Amino acid sequence: MPIFTVPNDVLLFPVAVRSGRLDVGAPFPTLEMTRTETEDRIFLRRVIDVSAADGSFVFKRDRLHGGSHHRLVGGELVKTTYRDALDALDPEGAARRRYEARIKFLPRKPRRFTLAVDRADDEWIVGDTYPDEHWDGAYVVCTQRAGRQVWYRAASYEEVYALGIRP
User: Fold this and answer.
1) Which contiguous run of DSSP H or E holds residue 16?
2) 25 within 8 A of 17, measured Cβ to Cβ
3) Which end of the chain is more exposed for a tag (fewer CB within 10 A), N or C?
4) Closest to 48 measured CA to CA, from 16, 24, 69, 26
């Protein structure tokens, strides 16, 4: 169990996955507070016992810089991103999160568009799934068609997965 000495305004928290997101638990316990005085300053530091296994993730809250995620490697805190921490803790949900990021600008409810005159014979079939022309790796579902009018919406991860596509 590593012990860290940090400035007084820094706290370290364990991180776990809850409902597909990273959740910060109660802070690790402070063993003691230290005080160092110089001619012009007083430094207060906190000694924290991080009771976590090597490779686990820790959230570091700092009043000055906000918060950041770190991985405990060999007794040191190595900075990492939120996405990397979430993917390492919840690898089953990584493909879903990547696909949801691809379709975030596509409509969830049906949206209408008009086919160009020269493309009026395009085969948009109601219920079929098509790759999106603008967002690589995203798929849309045709929900309705009337002449050159086509209604589409973003295909959900479950629909795409059911078709045998592994996004």
Assistant:
1) strand 10-18
2) no
3) N
4) 26
Instruction: Spell out the SS3 assignment of 47-65.
Output: EEECCCCCCCEEEEEECCC
What's the pTM value of the predicted model, to 2 decimals? 0.71
User: 87 pairs with which residues across the strands?
Assistant: none
Q: What are phi and psi of 122, to 5 degrees?
A: -60, 145
Q: Which helix (H) or strand (E) holds 80?
A: strand 76-80
Distance separating alpha carbons of residues 19 and 161, to the nearest angstrom: 21
**Spatial CB neighbours of 41, under 8 Å, sequence gap ≥ 6:** none
Residues near 101 by beta carbon (within 8 Å), at least 6 away in sequence: none
Cα three-residue angle 53-94-103, rounded to 5 degrees: 150
Q: How far is CA 104 from CA 45, 47, 109, in A?
A: 43, 43, 12
